[in-house]
């Protein structure tokens, strides 16, 4: 045997290994492809051999060739063979090859499932590791489903090396198999507090990645992350968490408030630039989310801007880049604070690094004002001249246009200047953005009526010098400008000084070299110009001129009639015939000018780009229905010429038959107008647009712009915008002077009248535009839908992960398990009776199946309900929330559950609320307790909490309620905010959610607000509220969370918390402290601030309630004095505070009762005047019970103490009498709990 | 998420490519070429971040790269990664290579691309950062190498001997051609931690 192996290796010696292959390729530089193809042939031979070592060597070489771009998918099966080798060396080679070239389409992947599973459970941690690494690259939905359970087991592996890999790969599993998210999430959450920093970091990584896509589902983790942020020292983890908070704050502004302080501390303290930068980024996100309500964060903004300035000034280009990047985020909400650093940003425009210049350009966008626009653009124009690469220059060009046109030309005071800038930009060689300049020209000329005269003059010049633009074929991008020029000259030809000259320019033979769509515009607008020229000439005594003009057209147009471009040809031949006809009339001395102009009468109004989309579909119109029978074959549509300026293409209703006489035309136009007026689908123009040129008062009532003749009109190509800058300066000065004069006058007048002159200093921004600019706004159809389309990518894999994670798990939500693997998921109360699961990997366990059958009807009912609900909603509003759309692709009943709308467990929601509210106002309720964020995380049980299955019928019943709830969901945040002021952490909505989950809601009556924090003590300086809860991990510990609120105007410091220990309960003090020493509260309180501290007590017996006396001492520091104060309090440890809400299955519950270990007791409450579900909710909330089963007015409930005592209740109600039968393995504990329940209800 | 990790030399020859999303071989080569084109025309002393029309992903993505001697190390990441963090990760990666290969140079990467892959797998998994602690990475790599050696045992000996002989005989024994300047000098950067 050994001999055989040695022999195999000797054979192998003569095979090429990877190094030989690489060396060979390097030696065959000239005929590399040929050499490689012979190598591939060799590899194919090697793969045919039985020796696994030879195969592995071949696969290793293939991996290298794959990197060079060779397709090696043909060897996929051999790769699988190598993967399944028992030797780590070969296995690793196989998995590496698989990770490089396997993907979802690789069919042999399905052969790997068992091999991977075997490797995952291998005793060698590196086998497992290498399998996990490989799997992370090629996991498919099938693999994810089949292996999810195995990977989840690995998340609790003893070796941190495996744990961290398993945690990390879960993200990939979630992406491919979204149903696994909910069952796996509790364990993932646990891993956030893993002792190994690597595992912790991996868990943070995964949750951050998940939360980035669907942040709202992870809000409830905020307290946990907050704790990690304040405790972790790993910068990687910190950066991830801080980035996560940046994604969460927009959803919850209160979170932002809480974050600002620790983040600013970090900014001040950290030396790591990366951390500093992320902190600044998140503070910016917080400030953005707060920007509406909180004006007093200017200090934070200043800090950020100041830190960013340091970054930008740094010599390290990376920091400079990032500084600018972050600055642009501040710019959106706090432009003022950025504007003060204009100098710095302009300086960055000169940087040699293109990335930095581009970032600086982005910033400029927000820095312009009316005052500095011209100056900034001037500077940019200089850069345009200097710019070497076309990409950067084009970027500059678009930025200039963006900056100028933003907010409807808000900052432009002088449009003459802007037009001349646009004309100057046409000098750019080889730019791609000719059409951008063109559309700007059109836009300005159409919308700013006052500028038309000037624009037309400039455009005429462009047309005259068209050869400059078209001379070089390289510049054909820019000749788009001629499109705009021709159209403007034609459309607004009445402003032309010498239309005849322009007409000639437009009909030059050279025009025929332009692109077709431009020629078409030339021809059409030549006709418009012709009409204008005729009108001028007919008025003149010399009638010969008019005929000469016609002759000019007749001479020149045939050139276009021959054009290969259909559009040009058609238009040219129409117009040619028309002109010929006109010429005939002219020869008979008929006046035609009026009628010819009537051809082009009418004014255009700009239409909003979205206008067509926004036309509402009228009732009864089915757009999807065929109008005619569907055609048998699709018609080719690619012959249509592309419309470049679809928006501006205006006169599609121009006459098609120029032969038809004018009367006929007029008649038709009238008819068409009539039709359009009656046609609801036609976007009507405003009534003013129906007016005809000649008597258009719309044009006349606009003050005519006097073209300043001091500026000589130059050939384009000469910069002249500068002159406008100068002129504008002068104008402004003059204006200012005049204003001052006026003001003086006013003042004098005022003084004369004896009034106080209180006109403040003139605002710099207060610059009046050069001329009254009438910017026509874009038209929208009537009753347009006010929606902004939310264009979300339907293929985004992350959409499927938008799953509510706070909702307790359903029975049906389990990862598919194989028989031979131990079942991992069990009901917490059901330990020890794991039923064997079914062998079929794709089917769920038999138990689940049984339950499924039971629930099927209910489910069906429910899904119907849901569908109905959906329909209802769709009718009501066009846009559905994302969660609802999500439900559609999900098929199975079980997964329908997964996609159910988000609700949150009552404790978590309320805890988050509470955690977020800084100033609690607590109604004095009896000292009762529930869990706080601490347990939310800490109490995440080993196996997932599962909802009792019997809640479902109630859920069906309460679906009505649910529907309402969903709608409420949207306003939830707002409501929360409002409610914070009243009962900060338990709003009626949340309570409603809770009762739904506990299966108790029938009516829609909202539950009264409930609080789990109770008043501890209070004086004029300070108020303490506390919450006591058991610690699940340690049966002898109780955690007391105390919120200290400073009620005074003074600073409270040196707070010390001390409790007189009893024999049974002791405050846990740090090592070395004496038994009577107080604990220092780890913070100080500025006026009006509150903060929370936690104290741990060790408890021996939990069967009796306890009271502990304590004192808080503190120093009150006001401006001039400081006094020492103290406040006594009594901590009340009730027996319920030792109970922990634990879910329980009804069958496990039944077993528990049957076992006979429990002692019984009972209680009767009289005169309880509340709905049954309220009663149950109260018991659940105040006494930490969960509902196991409920039938009409009878319910069974369960809870467990920190020391493992089971407490079972049977609650029955009839009329105003409530009877509670209770069982527990510890009678005195039970007695006390019942007593406390009684007190709760006697109080209300 | 990290979308791709590319290493290529000053002439655009790929030395390692790791894509965390699937692309066809042709597209991969195209991405490498395009990335090389973008990165190579940048001066030294400009910033290490690049955005622009890339084949991978969309506007959310960035190229973060470092240039060491003859090699470019390029990470393509989306916005969930910290830019400076990734720069530091590249540094950790190179330092780790330096430790594992003892004064790493381009030739190490050329002839032992599989080893580089294995080292990378201990740092980044499925596009997510797995480990940033260099000592931890090296510990794991060493342990795996040891396993590999023990597996090879006697059977591996002849093969090792042959490859040693091959190396000795061949005139273009790599280390002899261009020693010195192509060795990647790992600069001491201000540490991230």
UniProtKB/TrEMBL annotation, chain A:
Keywords: Acetylation, Coiled coil, Cytoplasm, Golgi apparatus, Membrane, Phosphoprotein, Protein transport, Repeat, Transport. It is a peripheral membrane protein. SMART domains: BLVR. Residues 621-695, 714-1007 are annotated as: Disordered. Residues 928-942 have a biased composition (Low complexity). Its main location: cytoplasm. The keyword Membrane applies. Part of the AP-3 complex, an adaptor-related complex which is not clathrin-associated. The complex is associated with the Golgi region as well as more peripheral structures. It facilitates the budding of vesicles from the Golgi membrane and may be directly involved in trafficking to lysosomes. Involved in process of CD8+ T-cell and NK cell degranulation. In concert with the BLOC-1 complex, AP-3 is required to target cargos into vesicles assembled at cell bodies for delivery into neurites and nerve terminals. Belongs to the adaptor complexes large subunit family. This is AP-3 complex subunit delta-1. It comes from Chanos chanos (Milkfish).
Automatic annotation (TrEMBL), chain B:
Its main location: membrane. It comes from the Eukaryota. It is found in: Cytoplasmic vesicle membrane; Golgi apparatus. Coiled coil: none annotated. One of its GO terms (biological process) is Golgi to vacuole transport. GO terms for cellular component: AP-3 adaptor complex; cytoplasmic vesicle membrane; Golgi apparatus. InterPro entries: AP_complex_ssu, AP_mu_sigma_su, APS3, Clathrin_sm-chain_CS, Longin-like_dom_sf. It is a peripheral membrane protein. Residues 1-147 form the AP complex mu/sigma subunit domain. Keywords: Cytoplasmic vesicle, Golgi apparatus, Membrane, Protein transport, Transport. It holds the Pfam family Clat_adaptor_s. PANTHER family: ADAPTOR COMPLEXES SMALL SUBUNIT FAMILY (PTHR11753). Part of the AP-3 complex, an adaptor-related complex which is not clathrin-associated. The complex is associated with the Golgi region as well as more peripheral structures. It facilitates the budding of vesicles from the Golgi membrane and may be directly involved in trafficking to lysosomes. In concert with the BLOC-1 complex, AP-3 is required to target cargos into vesicles assembled at cell bodies for delivery into neurites and nerve terminals. Belongs to the adaptor complexes small subunit family. This is AP-3 complex subunit sigma-1 isoform X1. It comes from Chanos chanos.
